[in-house]
Amino acid sequence: MKLNGHWLLARLRERSTWLGITGCLASLGLVIAPELGEAIAGFGVAAAGLIAVVTADRVD
To answer: What CA–CA distance (Å, rounded) separates 26 from 47?
Structure first.
């Protein structure tokens, strides 16, 4: 499968993409720094909430 620039830009405009990226980054932080696990998880949840607030739902 060849990556298409339009396809990639369309995915980057979707809320689920950013929530997934945020979740992955937050989970990586838990593995790297377990003593900061709660703070990193809290930041991940806050970032996901912010993304949900500022991105519009698609109306097709």
So the answer is: 10
pLDDT of res. 32:
55
Exposure b/e, 13-34, CB count within 10 A at least 16 = b: eeeeebbeebeeebeebeeeee
Asked whether the beta carbons of 48 and 15 are under 8 A apart, the reply is no
- Helices 37-54 + 15-32 axis angle, to 10: 170
32 phi and psi angles, rounded to 5 deg: -75, -40
CA 16-22-26 angle, 5° bins: 145
CA-based R_g, the chain, Å: 14
Q: Which pLDDT does position 11 carry in this prediction?
A: 81
